Amino acid sequence: MKDCPDKERPHQLNQRVVHLMVSWSYSCLFHWRAAGQAVTRHNHQQTTLTAAAEFKSHETAHMFQRMRELTLPRGEGSV
Fold first, then answer.
1. Is residue 76 domain-resident?
2. Can you tell me the distance from the alpha carbon of 51 to that of 64, in angstroms, rounded to the nearest whole number?
3. Per-residue pLDDT tens digits for 38-76
4. Domain count, the chain
């Protein structure tokens, strides 16, 4: 009877090893997914900031063009 627990031990050990490997794999997948989402979020923010900067630059250029047109004497028109 003493042999029975010893024979079950390798099986239990294998189950634990498999359980740990599966847990570790899910943990890695979760972290990789979270990292991927963070990269996607960062890229989206960069794209949004770039678009906002381009829009602001366009608006600023338009404002300076309009100021120039308003300050030029009539007849000297825009380029």
1. no
2. 20
3. 888 888 888 888 888 888 888 888 888 888 888 877 665
4. 1
| Residue found under tokens 């047109």 | 69
Does residue 62 sit within a domain? Answer: yes
pLDDT at 76: 55
Q: How far apart are the first and last CA of the chain?
A: 103
Global model pTM greater than 0.85 = no
CA 56 to each of CA 30, 32, 51, 52: distance values in angstroms, whole numbers, following the listed order: 38, 36, 9, 6
Q: Which amino acid is at 24?
A: W
| Structure letter (DSSP) for residue 2 | T
- 77 SS3 class: coil
- Amino acid 43 reads N
What is the extent of the structural domain holding 42? 1-70
